[in-house]
Automatic annotation (TrEMBL), chain B:
Membrane topology: Multi-pass membrane protein
Membrane-traversing stretches: 21-40, 46-67, 100-122, 128-153, 160-183, 195-217
Pfam families associated with the record: CcmB (PF03379)
Subcellular location as annotated: Cell inner membrane
Keywords for this protein: Cell inner membrane, Cell membrane, Cytochrome c-type biogenesis, Membrane, Transmembrane, Transmembrane helix, Transport
The protein's name in its UniProt record: Heme exporter protein B
Keyword DNA damage: no
Function description: Required for the export of heme to the periplasm for the biogenesis of c-type cytochromes.
InterPro entries referenced in this protein's UniProt entry, alphabetically: Cyt_c_biogenesis_CcmB, Cyt_c_CcmB_bac
Source organism (scientific name): Microvirga puerhi
Main subcellular location: membrane
This protein's encoding gene: ccmB
Length: 227, 221
């Protein structure tokens, strides 16, 4: 595996190259031959059935899992590594149940660096201003997911990796999330989201990861512009 | 320094909240030390002779309390993934978490040692020596334990394996801790000799433990 580190140009122009990426878990080949390139303002929807390897793709991008082959590269202003340029919101919320929503976000803001919105403003943006002082343990699944999504706003990161971001969210919160994603893309960010429900993102690229047929390893189809 | 401080403060807050391991180590320490006089009987000479050893073994076991959750809790709720996304190296993450853990387990043990010393009939100078040896010796226990905690972070029921893994490595600390505490009340060796070795053990454990735990966390998953 090669991770190239290209020193950026002056402005905030991003480009994420993924070439021929392959992923194995244990002996099992999950997918291979996955290639795509994303520029500033792009969104990528990763579709596929349960267990097809959508989350594994995000894990590789987030640096949690080593790819079995292929290369990843991010060209960005400043010489930071890929994992320092991204936000990851996955199935596990990464929230501490004993701390309040505000304390969780304050920690994320101080720890991740490049602070953006204040924790309270971020919570307000997701319609959770009233829950700022409540321990996360008291919140419902949807509210916890919204606190986790508020983390996207407290620290400035250009690449958002969202694993099933709409899970547990009600219709109004899904609208809010779509608006936040649009805003992020307008500012030049990149969003990669996995989903198995339709997610109404304007001009999003889509890839579909198929479950492997019995006689061959997994493969990727339908790389193109979505709705 | 800002991420380091943020993580340290978060872990201290967590320890103080409901379900945190805050004072559990101290209560456990108290239970063990209280049991010994009941088991041995009221022989004050015997108690004060083996008192330092009892306190050190109790401190060693109390250090293990909560150690299994040091990285496991972060692993389970996904916080460890968040901790990987910072420009802060994993070593600093480990250092912050271990420091927080020592502040809520090791430090209270050392400070409470004079009180617990009363239960095993320690002399005043012996109590002072206990405080000093626990103060410089418990960091070694915590750092050694951190490597085990990092290795067992993704295991269910990792607590038992953790204890079996790390206890053998804690033996040198135990030996020099007890011999320094005993040397303070007389004997053939001066206090400084085992005490300085104890300090050296803590310093070595701080380096090896930090690097080892960070390596274990990186290769985890």
């Amino acid at each position: 595996m090669v991770i190239r580190q290209d020193r950026g140009r002056g402005d905030r122009v991003l480009r994420l190259h993924v070439e021929n990426l392959a992923c194995s878990r244990g002996e099992r080949r999950i997918f291979e031959g996955l290639s795509f390139a994303l520029d500033s303002g792009d969104a990528l929807l990763v579709l596929g059935r349960n267990g097809a390897g959508k989350s594994s793709l995000l894990d590789i991008l987030a640096g949690r899992l080593a790819p079995a082959g292929g290369s990843l590269a991010l060209e960005e202003a400043g010489g930071r590594s890929l994992s320092e340029c991204l936000h990851y919101v996955g199935h596990r919320d990464a929230l501490k149940a004993a701390l309040t929503a505000e304390e969780n976000l304050t920690f994320a803001r101080d720890f991740l660096g490049s602070p953006a919105l204040a924790p309270r403003e971020a919570l307000a943006a997701l319609g959770l201003a009233h829950a700022a002082r409540l321990p996360v343990a008291y919140l419902s699944a949807g509210q916890r997911r919204r606190v986790a999504l508020a983390r996207l706003l407290v620290a400035e990161r250009s690449l958002w990796l969202l694993d099933e971001p709409t899970a547990a969210l009600d219709a109004a919160s899904q609208e809010t999330l779509l608006r936040l994603i649009d805003e992020h893309r307008r500012k030049g960010g990149i969003v990669i989201a996995t989903t198995h429900q339709p997610l109404a993102l304007a001009e999003a690229k889509t890839i579909r990861i198929e479950r492997p047929a019995p006689d061959r390893s997994a493969f990727v189809v339908a790389d193109g512009e979505g709705a | 320094m800002r991420p380091f401080r943020a993580l340290l403060i978060r872990d201290l807050k967590l320890a103080a909240r409901v379900g945190g391991s805050g004072l559990m180590g101290l209560v456990f320490f108290l239970s063990i030390v209280t049991l010994i006089p009941f088991a041995l009987g009221p022989d004050l000479n015997l108690l004060s002779r083996i008192g330092p050893a009892i306190l050190w073994i109790a401190a060693l076991l109390a250090t293990l309390i909560g150690l299994d959750r040091l990285f496991q809790a972060d692993q389970e709720d996904g916080s460890l993934d968040l901790l990987r996304l910072s420009e802060t190296p994993m070593e600093m993450v480990v250092l912050a978490k271990v420091t927080a853990h020592w502040l809520v387990t090791g430090l209270p043990l050392a400070l409470a040692a004079p009180f617990f010393g009363l239960l095993v009939a320690l002399t005043p100078e012996s109590m002072l020596a206990m405080v000093a040896t626990l103060l410089v010796g418990t960091p070694a226990l915590t750092f050694i334990g951190a490597v085990g905690a990092a290795l067992t972070a993704s295991l269910r029921r990792g607590g038992l394996i953790l204890a079996i893994l790390v206890l053998p490595f804690m033996i040198p600390t135990l030996i020099f801790g007890v011999s320094a505490a005993t040397a303070a009340t007389g004997g053939t060796i001066p206090f400084a000799t085992p005490f300085l070795i104890l300090i050296a053990l803590s310093l070595v454990a701080a380096v090896v433990g930090t690097v080892g735990a960070a390596a274990a966390l990186r290769s985890g998953e």
